[in-house]
């Protein structure tokens, strides 16, 4: 991979400031970025992804100082930001007065999801643009998230400009936490394990109940879906594709192993790429081995359950 040079970053920043979309790498997945203060640019994200307008976007910033011009950080949120940023943690906090964000970026809510990504290209781009960047995962709504620049290009038929920063190292989206007084509510399991947050902060992290008052509006049941159907916690039948996990497994059909050594970090990093690859074989069904529900397993299983959920309309392939 050729990391984008300073000139490529400056050009991308100029395009973003002029209202264009630019996809860029983060440590979790590639994001489809737009100037979060420009309503037309942000609307273009929804249009390009085919994303429902009620689903607010994560706003990316270069550092906590920039975040504090957009959101009001209660002490717990500040402690988390100081410890885990840059990193795969999105914090949902009340909007600051005079924040300047386009209403469409927050879908009209009075809160905003903020994060500082841990990727040199993303950070250089944020500094060069000097604007907050709204960036959902750079895939058509409902489809698999991209962890390489090629997956972004293919997903949008080459119509989206992409800064190539190589494959993402974490591989699943950020953990989303709402801070409500002294309560921490996990709205989406992600690349920062719940146990890691609890160990640092010394408080339990609650799981948001389905349909709860505080929720991530984008947590639709069917999401992250390949074209193939999926069966979870199982072994493959002849002819099916197999997404395996753990040592010494063979199968007479397209097979990928998330981690032969059963390492959850490796499995998270491989998850979306291997699903993209198995899907590209044209298999009608992908069987997935059981994966432990601890640490990063929570986020991996969340994505797999949504990928396997019934879809409306049905996928293109049977
Ligand atoms: O890792 C990530 O978070 C990636 C990279 C590109 O940073 N971004 C990402 O964005 O996953 P997206 O748009 O695919 O997911 C945003 C999620 C949605 O579930 C949305 O509902 C939730 O964040 N969200 C955004 N603003 C919110 C708010 N104010 N309150 C509750 N949930 C919010
Ligand atoms: Mg997404």
Automatic annotation (TrEMBL):
Residues 6-192 form the YrdC-like domain. It is an enzyme of class 2 (transferase). It comes from Devosia rhizoryzae. PANTHER family: SUA5, THREONYLCARBAMOYL-AMP SYNTHASE. Belongs to the SUA5 family. SUPFAM superfamilies: YrdC/RibB. It is found in: Cytoplasm. InterPro entries: DHBP_synth_RibB-like_a/b_dom, Sua5-like_dom, Sua5/YwlC_C, Sua5_C, T(6)A37_SUA5, TC-AMP_synthase_SUA5. The keyword Repeat does not apply. This is Threonylcarbamoyl-AMP synthase. The keyword Membrane does not apply. Its EC number is 2.7.7.87. Its main location: cytoplasm. Required for the formation of a threonylcarbamoyl group on adenosine at position 37 (t(6)A37) in tRNAs that read codons beginning with adenine. It catalyses: L-threonine + hydrogencarbonate + ATP = L-threonylcarbamoyladenylate + diphosphate + H2O. Keywords: ATP-binding, Cytoplasm, Nucleotide-binding, Nucleotidyltransferase, Transferase, tRNA processing.
